[in-house]
């Protein structure tokens, strides 16, 4: 059986660091509140108005190809998970392909908010498993600062900008993607969204005046659903595959809130030494969090390690992926 294995990871974050103390200068917040409620200390914010999500994605993909010693022309398919596309169309995937010179690839964007990367991974893996493609790139990228109201302390302290990318290739040694469990529930859409800019509320003076082009989040409602769903889906993929806590080497959880991550790990019965975490440095980069974690932790992951990736986000969308890591990083 052909499995889809991650054979390289890369990431990109803008240079500019915005700390909690920086935020104190323009919203009524403080480092103590942000740190204790979320775990975030700082995030990256792109200040150059000429740069967009595709630029971050393109940097990640260029590094990915360099690390794997392949030409971008070898990429068959590029899927980009994002809720902050450069524009409605063309897709950010198309723009990334053009920027990196992936001229033989086709691609599309996938809208699943914070679950964008796991949805993309599960989708891209199908093209490898069927033998249709040999090199599929999954990008998770979001420039959240472009849709944040920096006068709303409930949302602007949580998010940041960043992108990550992985390369999927066929593996016949049993390593790679083993299983996934994915869910969605559009009834949750009302709790977390960006109301305007689509066909329901096209851009108008009213939508701008009413701040409808920014992230809207009912924090507590999302928190409650996230804690339940992340724990439920991670334990269900373990039960389905008869995996015990001892079998799991790494939990790779979406970085929305340290408290959600800790509750998930506790339900799985795994200690903090097995939990990847970088929320303190990047905040919530939406589709970027999981590939950025893999990029940060790459050197510590060993061939054959069992990883559980898990995310919850706008939609609602949520799910888990079980994969066996396929290489030792040099
Ligand atoms: O990634 C997509 C999925 N998203 C998530 O998973 C996010 C889930 N939600 C959360 O992580 C949390 O709900 C938040 C971090 C967004 C908020 O934390 P919370 O513990 O749920 O706070 P809260 O909304 O219940 O607010 C508690 C208090 C309120 O004040 P009062 O009414 O108790 O006086 C807020 O006005 O904290 C206040 N508050 C703040 N204070 C200082 C809200 N934001 C801030 C802030 N600084 N930035």
CATH architecture field of the largest domain: 3-Layer(aba) Sandwich
Total count of domains: 2
Shape: globular
Mean pLDDT: 98
Number of E strands: 13
**CA(first)-CA(last) distance:** 27 Å
CATH superfamily of the largest domain: Thiolase/Chalcone synthase
Quick one: CATH class of the largest domain? Answer: Alpha Beta
Percentage of residues in DSSP E strands: 15-25%
Ligands bound, unique: oxa(dethia)-CoA
Determine Rg (CA atoms, Å).
19 Å
Task: Work out the helix count.
Answer: 11
Task: Write the element-wise H/E pattern from the N-terminal end onward.
Answer: EEHHEHEHEHEHEEEHEHEHHHEE
Major sheet strand order? 1-7-6-4-5
Largest sheet: 5 strands, mixed
List unreliable stretches of 5+ residues.
none
Structure explained in plain terms:
With 330 residues, the protein is of the alpha/beta class. The mean pLDDT is 98. The chain has helices spanning 20-24, 31-38, 53-68, 92-100, 116-129, 153-156, 205-209, 219-240, 258-268, 279-282, 289-297, and strands at 3-12, 17-19, 42-44, 77-81, 106-110, 136-143, 161-171, 176-184, 192-193, 216-217, 250-253, 306-313, 317-324. It is built from eleven helices and 13 strands. The protein starts with a strand and ends in a 6-residue tail after the last strand. It has two domains: 3-174, Peroxisomal Thiolase, Chain A, domain 1 (3-Layer(aba) Sandwich); 177-282 and 297-324, Peroxisomal Thiolase, Chain A, domain 1, CATH 3.40.47.10. Helix 3 (53-68) crosses helix 4 (92-100). The strands form four sheets. The protein has a five-stranded mixed beta sheet with strand order 1-7-6-4-5, with helices on both faces. A four-stranded mixed beta sheet has the order 8-13-12-11, with helices on both faces. Helix content is 32%, strand content 24%. Bound molecules: oxa(dethia)-CoA.
